């Protein structure tokens, strides 16, 4: 039953993968061919835009679509736990977001061909922005899993963006190390490298957020 749920989510979200991939590939090819700015600047611009844009596309109707179309009544009648339904949605979204960043990063490396940056340096920057995007999307799940409209999902996603931006800038200005390590934006490094400690600090928060999101989704309209 779980593989059927995964296949359902894959078909429903395939347009997001195609749209984001096509836009990213076109935008990357254009910037790296025109070369108005250096390859590193192009990579940073594309990676940061993706970090915000791709989670928004995936967050728009991943939960609210079935609520607004009322198909959630049918979904919840399937003899499977609601937590399983949640994870089928989450895993397909994570796989799609990760695939988009991998394709874009490899394309950057192919077009740059090491002419201005070391080999795999652009891929590394793009990959860590992709990890940050996955973390931000995971935090959205805790707030957006019960949204009933695309507008509400968009508000929840922007709330996550802005909330963590406030925490990150406060941590940097006030030199609060523990808060800076917790912020997903700390994974975005242009010139330096991301420490293993920074990545490990994300894991407890993600585990807690997934637990909360899963629990909230399981409690949607118990009478259904």
Structural overview:
With 224 residues, the protein is mainly alpha-helical. The protein has one domain (2-218). It is 76% helix and 0% strand. It has helices at residues 2-34, 39-59, 64-68, 72-75, 82-112, 121-144, 150-173, 177-182, 196-218. Helix 1 (2-34) packs antiparallel against helix 2. The longest helix has 33 residues, at 2-34. The chain is globular, with a radius of gyration of 18 Å.
Task: Set out the fold topology.
Layout: H1 2-34, H2 39-59, H3 64-68, H4 72-75, H5 82-112, H6 121-144, H7 150-173, H8 177-182, H9 196-218
Helix pairs in contact: 1-2, 1-5, 2-5, 2-6, 2-7, 5-6, 5-9, 6-7, 6-9
Number of helices: 9
Could you give a short account of the major beta sheet? none
Which ranges are low-confidence, i.e. pLDDT below 50, for 5 or more consecutive residues? none
Gyration radius, rounded: 18 Å
Span from first to last CA?
20 Å
Instruction: Kindly name the structural category.
Output: mainly alpha
H/E topology pattern: HHHHHHHHH
Proportion of strand residues: under 5%
Shape label: globular
The portion of residues assigned to helices is over 70%
Mean pLDDT: 88
Q: How many separate domains make up the residues?
A: 1
Per DSSP E runs of 2 or more residues, the count of β-strands stands at 0
